[in-house]
């Protein structure tokens, strides 16, 4: 799982993932990763729900120049996400209320990268758009660029051009 921070021109400002656990402002924190679940013991392999990987966002602490946030799931080793024996991605608030979940087994067989969600800053709040969109990119940096391209396509055209 990764969290990509973009400015208002959809330029990548920061990427938080298991090799970079915090953004520069420390408003996004990755809680570590489990590549196969085995390093978390039998409980991780057989009992659900147990979050093996978490990213926490403190939205009120996100720097003002960040206007878009993308949540991306990616197979680091390039395997299909649907190959996992058990697995799901879910989004929840700080009280544990789930607003979205996807069973990885239900993804297309060749899906290695999934654009899970997009957060867009408005004047005084953040707006969540659930994407659940497989991406063609197979590595995280290319996926972040692919999302940047899609976000830029949706930007309003400035007046007077």
Q: Strand order, main sheet: write it out.
A: 2-1-5-8-9
Tell me, rounded to a whole number, the average pLDDT: 88
* Number of helical stretches of at least 4 residues: 2
Order of helices and strands: EEEHEEEEEEH
Form type: globular
Count of DSSP strands: 9
Strand content: 25-35%
From the alpha carbons, calculate the radius of gyration and give it in angstroms.
Answer: 16 Å
CATH superfamily: sav2460 like domains
The N- and C-terminal alpha carbons lie at a distance of 39 Å
Structural class: mainly beta
What's the architecture in CATH terms? Sandwich
Low-confidence stretches: 39-48
Q: Mind telling me the CATH class?
A: Mainly Beta
What name does the CATH topology carry? Lipoxygenase-1
Pfam families: TerD
Domain TerD: 13-128
Protein name: Stress-like protein
InterPro entries: Stress/Tellurium_Resist, TerD
